[in-house]
Amino acid sequence: MNATEDLPPKSGAASGLQARYYPVFLDVAGRRCVVIGGGEVAERKVEMLLACGAEVTVVSPQMTPRLAFLSQQGSIHHEKREFFLSCLEGAFLVIGATDDENVNHAVWREGQSRHLLVNVVDAPELCNFIAPAVFQQGDLLISISTSGKSPALAKRIRQDLESRYGSEYAEFLKILGDMRERVFSAVPQVEQRKEVFERLVVSEILDLLRQGNSAEARRRAEEIVRQAVESARGKG
Fold this sequence. Notes:
Keywords: NAD, Oxidoreductase, Porphyrin biosynthesis. GO terms for molecular function: ferrochelatase activity; precorrin-2 dehydrogenase activity. One of its GO terms (biological process) is siroheme biosynthetic process. Its EC number is 1.3.1.76. Pathway: Porphyrin-containing compound metabolism; siroheme biosynthesis; sirohydrochlorin from precorrin-2: step 1/1. With 236 residues, the chain is an alpha/beta fold. The chain has 3 domains: 32-131, Rossmann fold, CATH 3.40.50; 135-164; 168-232. 44% of the residues lie in helices and 13% in strands. The strands form 2 sheets. Strands 3-2-1-4-5 form a 5-stranded parallel beta sheet, with helices on both faces. The protein has a two-stranded antiparallel sheet with strand order 6-7. α5 runs antiparallel to α6, α5 packs parallel to α8 (214-232) and α6 (190-202) runs antiparallel to α8 (214-232). The longest helix has 19 residues, at 168-186. The termini are far apart. The model is unreliable at 1-5 (pLDDT under 50).
């Protein structure tokens, strides 16, 4: 017998698959994130970081009216000056969003020297992470990346997803989240929990939500969970 026959199948690079980036979602809540630049691109980056709970500092002599408003509100901290090296002190992540190539390279070099997550907009060679196109419905978050080769295609795919995944998915996830807590507290066996989660997902709940019948959708979810709990307790 060939000695390799008992080995598990190869995966990832060992199977010949290659990827430029390792996909990951970052928790930036409460973390210091620095955006260099104050234009419209910087504004979009700041808005996304704020939505995720980051503590944002913007370094730029000028800012868009929206960024100025956020600064006046106290939602962001503004360093009204050109990029300076020590502005990255204590940062978790830095985004370079200027049209000055020298500044962008300086951001990259300093971020690298501090072992930070660095993204310089529209310059993949000056990034150790890239920001994908994002589609969101409530807690459903889908990201699309072409590994920097075609942001236009990523945008097109995102638009296709918008037409496929409607607001019913956001409501469905709210129900699933509520049911998940109850299942974990009442159903001790891992396999039983997996079974009930799968029953919820393949049930008619999503169709009911599409029809606007939220009350019936939640009632059906409650029924599935109740049956699972009774079964776990030996009553079903």
